[in-house]
Amino acid sequence: MGLVGQTAIVTGAGKGFGRAIALRLAKDGAGIVAADIHAAHAEETAALIRTAGGDATPCVVDVASAGSVEAMVQCALAHGPGRVDILVNNAGIWKSTPTEETTEADWDRVLGVNLKGVFLCCRAVIPIMKAQARGRIVNIASIAARNGGTFSGIHYVASKGGVVAITKKLAKELGAFGIVVNGVNPGHSDTGIMAGLDLTAVRDALVKNTPLGRPAEPEDIADVVAFLASDAARFVHGETIEVNGGLVCD
Ligand SMILES: NC(=O)c1ccc[n+]([C@@H]2O[C@H](COP(=O)([O-])OP(=O)(O)OC[C@H]3O[C@@H](n4cnc5c(N)ncnc54)[C@H](O)[C@@H]3O)[C@@H](O)[C@H]2O)c1
């Protein structure tokens, strides 16, 4: 229960990795702001946390909108003792179009959510974390940032590469203020992010090539985020940890 008294914002907390991360940080004692673009999903996650004896507030946010992100941070300040101790930038969208079929609108939206969203959320919490002289930021990127993706679109790969780069930039800029910044590169997981596409064959090939022989479970990612958010990781800074069952380990 190392996070008792701390407030954590988890974006994209309505499903998938974000829900598992929110549940895990709540188990460790943090008060959770479960933020998602889908109100009902955010409310479901917050209800699951409260049923398990934790503390959570749902919040609707579009991380690609500065005004919406500011409102989310105000919600976090109102939720607990006026602090934001942990920010997990997890919200993301995924697309798989070949480059020549990728529209400008799709490029803008994917970069807007996956990369600008991380910038906007960090920008909004940095003054609070500086005033506290303490904070933890964990950015969820992707194995695609490491290997160029297998079936991810160019916009997705670019966005996640950008997340890894700005994790390093933020670490350099914020370390002196007691703000620790790291990331996670998850491997493939059967969450809903690829819903609507029949990618069974590609997905099966990925699993076959994964030394640990299975896709990631959301809890695999949540456990690593919980480590990075905890005091145990106090001297890990500017790193993005690969969590992919050994699929890319060179
Ligand atoms: N599932 C995978 O295989 C995989 C692999 C590598 C990285 N990732 C990354 O992990 C993160 C979580 O993905 P997931 O697999 O849990 O996906 P998911 O679709 O299950 O969950 C993503 C959540 O983000 C929310 N969201 C989407 N756009 C948003 C916005 N503009 N503002 C706020 N919330 C928004 C969705 O409503 C959803 O609840 C993403 O950043 C994704 O790119 C996923």
Rounded to an integer in angstroms, the radius of gyration calculated over CA atoms is 17 Å
The ligands bound in this entry are: nicotinamide-adenine-dinucleotide
SSE succession: EHEHEHEHEHHEHHE
CATH topology, anyone? Rossmann fold
Number of domains: 1
Task: Calculate the terminal CA-CA distance, rounded to whole Å.
Answer: 35 Å
Quick synopsis:
With about 250 residues, the chain is an alpha/beta fold. It is built from 8 helices and 7 strands, in the order E-H-E-H-E-H-E-H-E-H-H-E-H-H-E.
Q: How would you explain this protein's 3D organization?
A:
- The chain has 250 residues and is an alpha/beta fold.
- It has a single domain (7-241), classed as 3-Layer(aba) Sandwich (Rossmann fold).
- The chain has helices at residues 16-27, 39-51, 66-79, 104-132, 143-147, 154-174, 200-208, 218-229, and strands spanning 7-11, 31-36, 55-60, 86-89, 135-140, 179-186, 240-243.
- Helix 1 crosses helix 8.
- It is globular and about 50 Å long.
- Bound molecules: nicotinamide-adenine-dinucleotide.
